[in-house]
Structures are given as C-alpha cells and as structure tokens.
Design brief:
The complex is a heterodimer of chains A (about 800) and B (about 190). Chain A has about 800 residues and is of the alpha+beta class. Helices cover about 30% and strands about 20% of the residues of chain A. Chain A folds into 3 domains: about 190 residues, Aldehyde oxidase/xanthine dehydrogenase, a/b hammerhead (Aldehyde Oxidoreductase, domain 3), CATH 3.90.1170.50; about 325 residues, Aldehyde Oxidoreductase, domain 4 (2-Layer Sandwich), CATH 3.30.365.10; about 150 residues, Aldehyde Oxidoreductase, domain 4 (2-Layer Sandwich), CATH 3.30.365.10. In chain A, helix 12 packs parallel to helix 21. Chain B is globular. The N and C termini of chain B lie far apart (about 50 Å). About 10% of the residues of chain B have low confidence. The chains are: A alpha+beta (about 800), B alpha+beta (about 190).
Chain lengths: ~800, ~190
C-alpha cells in the first residue's frame, strides 16, 4: 500500500529504501524527461524546420456525403507563394488505400479508404485536395481558394437507423451499412452454458433485467495537434510524425505506397499525448509523404484543433442492449449482450476490432455461467472511430457495472454486497472466465475493503439517508465500480486467433558502452508515459548500474529498429519485460567474459549489485569494467564475440488483468440538475509497481477522462452530419475546476505471468471511473423514479430526467 | 508589414511583421521560440500562455504588433543562471506533467496566478488555472505543484519580479545555454 489521502502540498517521498543498486523498483523517481518539458526544449514535430520546407494545408469537404463533381484549383495555384495544389485524382495512382489491420470476420465489408477522396466524400471533413506553399499561412489562404463542386447525397448518421431497411447507405457501393457481425457464445465455445436457457429459467423463477445503454461518441483530444514532416531528399525518406506507432506506421507506409520499407525511416519525436488517438495511419501522413515525394521537397502538415476534432479518429459510439439473468437471491446466471458499434465512414487501423476487445470484458470480475456477445459493426457518414483509451473495455465495464447496480436496485440490496456475491474470490485464481480468458491473479476483496475504508462508505450512506429523509434539494448518491480489464496487448497467438494483422511482442536492446554508460533501446514509443525514467529504473535494478548512467532511446526506427509501439497498457507488461530479458542476457554474456578474465568457472561467477565475482573470493569486476574489456577485446575467450550487448523480443503468454474498486459520491442538485463530485476514492491493483509516482499520475489522468465521459464530453453532429463540437468551446474537456481531488491507493497482487509481476495501468482509471460516476448520480435520484440518464449527464439531462420521473414517484407514494 | 520591437526573454528583437501575425506565431516562426506551443484555435487551451509585462496572456489572443514595446517572458526565459524557476521545480517534483504539451502554458499561467495571488487555496488554484487544459494529469498534481511553489515564488517576489529577466541587449545573454543547463540539472534528479 502506498500514499493514502495525499492532500495538496504533500509530496510523495522518494522511497527510503532507494539509493543502493538493486533498490530501484518501486521508487518514486522524478522523471528524466521532465527537464526538457519544463524548460520549453521539447522536440515537437511542428517545431521542425528544414531547408526549403513547404507547408501543406488540406481542402476538406463541408458535406458528410456527396459526389465530387469538379475541383477548380486554378485560383489557388495562382495565389502567392503556392507551389502546388493536388487533388485526390492527381494522387490516385500512388495513394492506394489506408490500412485496416483487423478484419474481424472473413466477410468483413470495408470500402477503399483513399488518403484524399477521389469521387465521393463520406464524412464532413474528409480531405479532397492539398495545397503546398512556402508558408503555412499561404497554404491555408490558398486552400480557401480551391473551388470544389459537390452533389449532395443522402446521409446516414444514426446507428440504429443505419441497420433498418431502406436506410440511406454510407457507402452505396457496398450495398449495406453492416461491415461485420461477430459473435461469441459460451455454449458454442465450450466455456459455459447456453444464455437463452439461463434467461428462460430466470423469467420463470428469478430476475431478468433488460437495459439499453448509449455509449456516446468521444474525441480523444490529445493536447498536441497531429503534425507530420516528410523529408524525401535523403537516401531514405524520413517521416517525423506525432504518432504512438512509429514502427507500425513504417510497415504500413511501405505497404500502402510500395516504397521499400528499408527506404523509410519514421521518427516519433516528443509526442504530446495520444490516448489511442495517435494509434493510426492517417490520410495526413500518407498525403504529406506523397506530396513531398512528388515535389522533392520537405513538407510539413500540422492540423488545426478544429481539423483534429473533425477528422482525427473518434472513440466509443455504441448502442448496447443487455439482458441479465439472475436468481432471486441475486446470483447472476447469464448475460446476453447485443451491440451496435459505429465504425463511422471507414475502417481505420483497428476500428473494427475495438468493440471485439470488449467481448471478453462484459463478464468482468464475475463468475456467471452463461454468456453471449453479439456485435454488429455499422457504417455511418461520420469520422471513423478507433482506439480511445480503453478501447472496447470501458464500454463493456460501463455496461456490466450499470447492470450490477440495476440488479442491486431490483433486489433492494447494497450494490457492494451484490457484487461480492458474484465475484471471483481471491482463492479461486487462476480462474478461467465464461469468455474463455484465464485471469492469473486478483484480490477483489482486498481492494474493495480498502476502498470502503478510505471512502467512509457507512458514513456517506447515513448522510444519504438523512438527505432523503429531509427532502434535501441536494441529494447524495454513491456509485460503485469494481472493474478488471485485459491489457498488456497481447499474446501474439491470441491476436492471431482474433484475426488481428500483427503480433503483440515487444523488442528491447541493451548496449554496454565502453565508458560504462548504458543505452537501452526500446520498441515501446512513449508519448507522456515516462518510459525514459521507468526503463532506467528497471535496467539500473537489473544490472546494478546507476540510474543516471542509463539512457533510454526510442521512437526512431533507425535507432530502435524493431518494435510494436505503445497502446493497450502494454509498455511495461510487454516492453518492460523485453528490457528485463535483454538485461539478463547482458549479465549472462558478461559472466562468460568475467570467468575468462578472472580465471574461474562460469558457474562460480556470482552477479550482485553490478559486480561479477568469483564465489567465495574477493576477486571480481564490475559490469562496466567488463564492458571496457570487451571494447578493447584484447583478451576474449576463444570463440566468443567481443560484445556483451543483447537483444530480446518478448511475447507474453497472457494478458495482464489489473483490477480495482472505485467509489464515487456525487451531490445532485435536484432543482438545477447540477452534479458535483463530492468524493472519489479508488484502490487499484496493478501488481508490482516500478514507479509509484508514474502509476498514480496514470490513474489520475485516466480518472479525468472517464469522469469526462460520464459528465462532460460528447461529439455531436447536426442532422447534416456536421460536427458541431469541433472546438474546445463546444467540446467540454474538463478543466481543473471540473474535477475533484482524487484519493488513490493500491493493493498489490502480483501478476504471475511475467517476471516483474506487473500489470498495465494506462487505461484502468478511464475504464473504471465512468460507471462509478453514473451509478452515483443515479443512486442520488433513483428514489425519485429515475432509472437511467444518458451520458454525458449534463445538468439539463439530469434535470429533465427528474422532471419526467416526478409523476412516477408521486404515483408510488400514494 | 509593420515594424515592431519586442523584448523576449531579456533580448530585444526588431522585426517587420504582417499585421495579422499572432504573438505566438511571431515567437515560434520568427524567433524560433518553439517552447511556446499552439494547442487550439479558440483561445481555450492556454498552451501558448506567456507573460506580457509580467501578466499571463494567451499569446494566440495577442497580435505581434500589440506586443510592440513590451516585455515578453516565455517558458524558455524562465530559468535563470542555470537555475530552474520554483514553479518549474515544483512541476518536476510533483509529477505535474506527463506528455508535457500543456506544460509551458501551465507553468506560465501559474507564474501569472502567483503574481496576482501569492498564497492561493486549492480552490483558487483550480479557478486560476481554469483557462489551461491538460489531458494527461487530471490536474491533481498540477494543483499540488502550484501550492508547493507558492511560498518560494512569494519569497522571490519580495525582492523583485520573479518572472521578468533583467533587460539586456541582444547577444549578451545566452538564455538558451542557461535554460539547457537548468534542464540538465533535472536529468537523473530524484
């Protein structure tokens, strides 16, 4: 357990045990990367200026669905400082189609996805032409002069309407709005019983709860707008991009453009947040590459915030229909899930797989015997959706945690008691779930009891009862969310069985420099997570070298030639383990050299605190001394290469399953509908922790995004398909006044599937917090007859729900 | 084009600019002061916050010509003589940043806030930074950092303005060097 209620002003103290080699793990190191970030010396892509560089600006469609009948570029071509104006047709021979790496079914339908539209646009904001000019201002001015004639076509925007007969088609050429239909059934898979039977039994003699939930569309809204620079003038074409995935991007660029992969170098310099939103191969990246190649000049394209909101992929957007069966004493016997998932107009890199990730999480921490999940992936004329922090798992967690509260309400019982009756007990791990996953470890009891204690659960329940009693206009509600998630994406063979186009391994290299310094090369690609610090701690611990002597290199395919990048809370649980394995190989190689130099048997060489010594003697050498000896290579054992550097690629056997209990108390003003978070307590179990400061920061940020889904954020389109929330004026990113002070704590149940015992933490807060807040608001007003309020729970929606529910409450009281 | 003369981080610059040029564009494109960043087009995010004569402004909401004859302090001029400003130190110590994109603006807004209210409450800090958006931290550690920095900033202010480096002619003062030294002092700190 760590810091409890760290009130403002407190500082997490560096671990008192820190200092000596071998004591790095678990230490609250301040981050190495901060130095450049707090002094304004960060390398953002948009900072890059190259000789002769041109600036690009996109011409974008104002219509959500239209045929392009003509494009007149002459006025733009003639504008000052404009070098070229290119349309989709101009680039069509080279642009190919943007990749979808996750065809979830063999018959999945996917339209071709050109970087620049050629004949037809299918969402508002889709790019149709690009201007290259000597300044960014000139490019934008000229983009306004490109005259595009459109013939409007019918739009389909609503997910449920899209699957009805006669609905307009997002892509008429496909003949349907359905991209794919994906089913998991525990009876068919042999992982459980038949859910229809469970429901039938419950209808006869039990409880059946049916609900429809709406997962609104969200915008990742990373703070750094996306930017790409391409320099085609070298032997290799170099792309700098604000991306989470330099390695995947390189492979995909080669496939899309036909340029040999060996002739492409991708660099992700400092990247200002991603949250899944920069897990993409974008039209902007491909367009910049094609224009740069054609004009033989370096080119830069930096989007505006409004462009980012409109066309950088969105997240969530599902209609969820659930049927939960339970016995009369509140034991869940089955769950049926029927999803409609909005793909938007195209399938991006993993668009189609996002809802499928949720398929394994609706059963959450519970051990009911029957489960069926059905998902229909649907096209609409909106920006495409794709990964956003949690990707599929927040949607699933929201739905099941809402259902558990509905079950508790139906039973008239405490929601924690109902959960406890159904969850997997700690002694039952490892546990194979009804969805077929093996959860390696967990202790839901410990996390929950700690959260209850920190929250003053009983005290708040008493206050809630008092407020109800005296008809206080401000009512108190308590929301519970006991979550788990699968992360650390992912075992390659599991990804393969789900038709994902790549593996889930990660690579690392360690280079022992002759001067004693250590370079760690990682295939993980940080964009705020603090890898430079955490990886240094791992290597310092493993090799017994000073933290300060470790340099972490990442995000450049020429430096870190192999990698699978950063998403799905995978960096530590996969990439970090690759670092561990590379470090262990370094030690083994050094052992051979040390034995030779110390004239001993390798089996007698002991490695402690960075020193290799002959057992039972005082003879020994430090790892750094061996690095220097190997550099000189004057005295190597016969047949041994003069290097103790090592590479490792780690492919996990299993996901990691962090879990936790989140408790939220909200005050709801029944007269205005305003919601205020009174207290938020979360106890997360992310296994062993490398750096508690970084873990806590990840939790805080995750909470903010999950709470924002519950209360503030929604991408809204008008009936023509225009995004009306395309600025920070309209899309309510929470500020410091909109969020509470969080009380965070941890329990530690080590993962048994990796040598560090770590689990992922990046998405946990986001996954857990949304249902905690929504459950809390509903708990405050449920006695007034309110059963559901759609997210985001704005004051207007809350107020309306209360107004509409009043007659029901009066009816009941008569 | 208009002639302007602006003192930025202690150095006076004279330039011809288009009247429509925003201060943030002037800083980034003309002066190479890319530590100040652009996060939105509607003056909501605050990433571009700088100090204009010691008061925080969003440099996307100020025209370069409006800065004519004034003093601008950016994130790059905050550390002096190789020493981090107390607000920078506190952001580092409290882990008040993750991706760091909002950080320059957040730090400069904090300087502005503490200039007006040297000992704010948690509530006042949250309200004072309402115009600066962060997507990574949930703000909790930012609030803690501001509260940690406040006493030291107040102490500095007791002398002279903590955020306006002494005016020196161009070329005599190499802020880049001192800033880098300050940045280096963080590397490996714990």
């Amino acid at each position: 357990m760590t810091a409890v209620e760290d009130r403002p002003g407190d500082v997490i103290q560096d671990s008192p045990s820190g200092g000596a080699a071998g004591r790095e793990l678990g230490r609250a190191r301040r981050r190495k990367e901060d130095g450049r970030l707090i002094t304004g010396r960060t390398k953002w892509t948009d900072n890059i200026v190259l000789p002769g560089m041109l600036h690009l600006a996109m011409v974008r469609s104002p219509y959500a669905h239209a045929r392009i009948t003509s494009i007149d570029t002459s006025a733009a071509q003639g504008a000052p400082n404009v070098v070229a104006v290119l349309t989709g047709r101009d680039l069509d021979d080279e642009q190919g189609g943007l990749p979808n790496a996750w065809p979830v079914t063999p018959d999945q339908k996917a339209p071709r996805h050109p970087a620049l539209a050629v004949d037809e646009v299918t969402f508002a904001g889709e790019a149709v032409a690009v201007v290259a000019a000597r300044t960014a201002a000139a490019a934008r001015d000229a983009a306004e002069l490109v005259d595009v004639e459109y013939e409007e076509l019918p739009v389909v925007l609503d997910l449920e309407e899209a699957v009805t007969d006669g609905a307009p088609l997002a892509h008429p050429s496909l003949g349907t709005n359905v991209s794919a239909h994906w089913v998991f059934d525990s009876a068919e898979a042999g992982t459980g019983d038949d859910v229809e039977q469970a429901i039938a039994r419950a209808r006869e003699d039990g409880i059946v709860i049916e609900r429809r939930f709406r997962q609104q569309r969200l915008i990742p809204a990373f703070m750094e707008p996306r930017s790409t620079v391409v320099d085609p003038t070298g032997e290799q074409l170099t792309m700098w991009s604000a991306t989470q995935i330099p390695h995947i991007l390189r492979v995909m660029l080669a496939m899309v453009t036909g340029i040999p992969e060996s002739k492409i170098r991708v660099i992700a310099p400092d990247v200002g947040g991603g949250f899944g939103g920069k897990l993409q191969v974008t039209p902007e990246e491909v367009t910049t590459l094609l224009v740069a190649r054609r004009l033989r000049k370096p080119c830069k394209l930096t989007e505006t915030r409004t462009e980012s909101m409109m066309v950088a992929h969105h997240g969530r957007d599902q209609v969820q229909r659930l049927t939960l069966a339970a016995t009369k004493d509140g034991r869940v016997t089955g769950l049926k899930v029927d999803l409609l998932a909005d793909m938007g107009a195209y399938l991006g890199l993993v668009t189609s797989g996002v809802p499928i990730l949720g398929a394994f999480m609706f059963n959450a921490i519970y051990k009911f015997p029957a489960y069926r999940f059905e998902c229909t992936n649907v096209f609409t004329n909106k920006a495409w959706t794709d990964a956003y922090r949690g990707a599929g798992r927040p949607e699933a967690t929201f739905a099941i945690e809402r259902m558990m509260d509905e079950l508790a309400a139906e039973l008239g019982e405490d929601p924690l008691a109902v959960r406890e009756r159904n969850w997997i007990r700690h002694e039952e791990f490892p546990f194979t779930t009804v969805a077929g996953l093996e959860y390696d470890s967990g202790n839901y009891e410990a996390a929950t009891s700690r959260a209850v204690e920190l929250f003053d659960y009983e005290g708040l329940r008493r206050e809630q009862a008092e407020r109800r009693e005296r008809h206080d206009p401000v009512q108190l509600g308590i929301g519970v969310s006991t979550f788990t998630e699968m992360c650390g994406l992912a075992p390659s063979r599991v990804l393969g069985s789900l038709s994902y186009g790549a593996g889930g391994w990660e690579a690392a290299s360690i280079r022992m420099l002759p001067t004693g310094k250590v370079e760690v090369v990682t295939g993980s690609s940080a964009h705020g997570q603090g890898h430079e610090t955490a990886w240094s701690q791992i290597v310092a611990e493993r090799l017994g070298v000073p933290f300060e002597d470790v340099e972490v290199l990442h995000g450049d395919t020429q430096v870190a030639h192999k990698g699978m990048d950063t998403y799905g809370s995978r960096s530590l649980a996969v990439g970090g383990i690759a670092v561990v394995q590379a470090a262990d190989k370094v030690v083994e190689k050094a052992r051979t050299v040390a034995a030779h130099l110390l004239e001993a048997d390798p089996a007698d060489i002991e490695f402690t605190d960075g020193r290799l010594s002959v057992a039972g003697t005082d003879k020994g050498m430090t790892l750094q001394e061996i690095a220097l000896a190997v550099f000189a290579a004057h005295n190597m054992p016969d047949g041994v290469e003069p290097s103790i550097d090592a590479d490792a690629v780690y492919d996990p056997d299993n996901f990691s399953f962090p879990h936790g209990t989140h408790l939220c108390a909200t005050e709801v003003d029944t007269e205005t509908g305003a919601v205020r978070i009174r207290r938020y307590v979360c106890v997360d179990d992310v296994g062993e922790v490398v750096n508690p400061l970084i873990v806590e920061g990840q939790v805080h940020g995750g909470l903010a995004q999950g709470i924002a889904q519950a209360l503030y954020e929604e991408a809204i389109h008008d009936d023509q398909g225009t995004l009306t929330t395309a600025t920070f004026v309209d899309y309510l990113l929470p500020s410091a006044v909109d969020l509470p002070h969080f009380v965070t704590d941890r329990t530690t149940t080590p993962s048994s599937t990796n040598p560090l015992g770590v689990k992922g933490v990046g998405e946990a807060g986001t996954i857990a917090s949304t249902p905690a807040v929504v459950n809390a608001v509903l708990d405050a007003v449920r006695h007034l007859g309110v059963e559901d309020i759609q997210m985001p729970m704005t004051p207007q929606r809350v107020w309306r729900a209360i107004q509409e529910a009043v007659p029901v409450a009066q009816e009941e009281s008569r | 084009m208009s002639q302007i003369s602006v003192e930025v981080d202690g150095v006076t610059y004279s330039d011809m600019v288009e009247p429509r040029t925003l201060l943030v564009q002037y800083l980034r494109e003309n002066l190479g002061k890319v530590g100040t960043v652009i996060g939105c087009d509607t003056s909501n995010c605050g990433s571009c916050t700088v100090l204009l004569d010691g008061r925080s402004v969003k440099s996307c909401s100020v025209l370069a010509v409006q800065a004519d004859g004034h003093k601008v302090t950016t994130i790059e001029g905050l550390a002096t003589d190789g020493q981090l400003h107390p607000v920078q130190k506190a952001f580092h110590n409290q882990h008040a940043l993750q991706c760091g994109f909002c950080t320059p603006g957040m730090i400069m807004a904090t300087c502005g806030l503490l200039g007006e209210n040297p000992s704010p409450t948690e509530e006042e800090v949250r309200e004072g930074l309402e115009g600066n958006l962060c997507r990574c931290t949930g703000y909790q550690n930012i609030v803690k950092a501001v509260l940690e920095a406040a006493p030291e900033v107040a102490q500095m202010s007791a002398g002279e303005s903590p955020v306006e480096p002494a005016t020196q002619p161009a070329g005599q003062r190499a802020h880049t060097t001192t800033g880098e030294a300050a940045a280096a002092s963080v590397g490996g700190a714990s």
